[in-house]
Design goal:
Blueprint (H helix, E strand, L loop, with lengths): L9 E3 L9 H14 L11 E5 L4 E3 L10 H10 L13 E10 L3 E10 L1 E3 L3 E5 L5 E6 L2 E6 L2 E5 L1 E3 L3 E5 L6
Parallel strand pairs: 1-2
Antiparallel strand pairs: 2-3, 4-5, 5-12, 6-11, 7-8, 9-10, 9-12
Length: about 170
């Protein structure tokens, strides 16, 4: 993140414990960023204090809140939105996990980077050099909605999906 020039968001967890060393750890974190040659503008990073066990986050360790909204608001404020392609771009998906379903066979899971895919689409798996490893036809598209998957006819850029139709892709 530092090499990419992204602003870090630092979260100190377990600050509610009597053995927490908040000041000491803050200094160690700053020293770490300096040792990593972080640019000066990135050394003014937001700091969140939290107790994940108790479910709170705050900008001040002596003032616990009742929820994690401070953490989420800070992420929204400081973390840039991902660069997602459009639906008209060619379909690209980075596969991050493989799964198997007794009815569907191999599932490739990942986030659609650009374009869209629908049941019946011709797709192929490629290696890092762009060589085609396998060609296939999409037989099912399953999209994550919270913790559950549901069958959809189409997925587009930004969606996290599982796709059936490739049998050997790895």
């Amino acid at each position: 993140a530092l090499k990419a020039g992204l602003q870090p968001v630092v979260v100190f967890n377990k600050v509610d414990r009597p053995t927490s060393r908040i000041g000491e750890v803050e200094n160690e974190m700053f020293d770490l960023f300096v040792n990593l040659d972080a640019p000066d503008e990135l050394l003014e990073y937001p700091v969140i204090y939290a107790s994940a066990r108790d479910g709170w986050a705050s900008l001040d360790p002596s003032e616990p809140t009742t929820d994690m909204s401070v953490l989420l608001d800070t992420i929204i404020e400081h973390v840039p939105v991902p660069n997602v392609g459009t639906k008209t771009d060619p379909f690209r998906m980075v596969v991050t996990m493989l799964a198997h379903d007794n009815w569907l066979g191999r599932l490739v899971n990942g986030r659609v980077q650009s374009g869209c895919v629908e049941v019946g689409s011709k797709i192929h798996a490629i290696d890092l050099d762009g060589n085609i490893l396998e060609a296939g036809k999409v037989t099912k598209v399953l999209q994550w909605r919270g913790l559950a998957q549901e069958e959809v006819t189409m997925a587009s850029a930004g969606n996290i999906v599982s796709i059936a139709g490739l049998s050997a892709a790895s």
